[in-house]
Write a structure and sequence with these properties.
The chain has about 160 residues and is an alpha+beta fold. It has two domains: about 5-70, Ribosomal protein L11/L12, N-terminal domain (Ribosomal protein L11, N-terminal domain), CATH 3.30.1550.10; about 75-150, Ribosomal protein L11/L12, C-terminal domain (Arc Repressor Mutant, subunit A). The chain contains six helices and five strands, in the order βααββαβααβα. It has helices at about 20-25, 30-45, 75-80, 100-110, 120-135, 140-150; strands at about 5-10, 50-60, 65-70, 95-100, 135. The strands form two sheets. Strands 1-2-3 form a three-stranded antiparallel β-sheet. Strands 4-5 form a two-stranded parallel sheet. The longest helix has 15 residues, at about 120-135.
């Protein structure tokens, strides 16, 4: 039983049989239409974002599995802000302002991929990304918000559920 695995970065809900998927999977004989349809179904909630996907094809029976990753933290943050890119000068220029609710939502999405042991730890990691992108959190420097998270100020809204 032979298996071929292809990893690609596709736009959520807009994968096509063209590059990078088509040329990589074409030689396996798998039905590209079905693969693309499955990828688009699984990535629809990430519309407008680049999403990592892993396609594993069984070359004997032409069956396939699609695993969808979570977009990079920076892409999720920019998506919440409705921006395409961050400032090239963080600390001096502000890209935008994000809500703590959005930070927690992103932390929950990324939790399994982050090394943080708790949701509060994942929130602090996302806040660190905001710092490097020049993004404020409810008008505050993300480093100050990280301290507030450590002090327990947001414990009521950072729940493990």
């Amino acid at each position: 039983m032979g298996k071929v695995t292809v990893e690609a970065l596709v736009e959520g809900g807009k994968a096509t049989a063209g590059p990078p998927i088509g040329p990589a999977l074409g030689p396996t004989g798998v039905n590209l239409y079905q693969v693309v349809q499955k990828i688009n179904e699984l990535t629809a909630k990430f519309k407008g974002l680049k999403v990592p996907v892993k396609i594993t094809v069984n070359t004997d029976d032409k069956s396939f599995e699609v695993e969808v990753g979570v977009p990079p933290t920076s892409a999720l943050i920019l998506s919440k802000l409705g921006k395409e890119k961050a400032t090239g000068n963080p600390g001096k220029e502000v890209t935008g302002d994000i809500s703590m609710k959005d930070i927690i939502e992103i932390a929950k999405m990324k939790r399994t991929q982050l090394s943080a042991k708790t949701l509060a730890g994942a929130v602090r990691t996302v806040l660190g990304t905001c710092t490097s992108m020049g993004i404020t959190v409810e008008g505050k420097d993300p480093r100050d918000v990280q301290k507030e998270v450590l002090e327990g100020k947001y414990d009521d809204i950072i729940s493990e559920k």
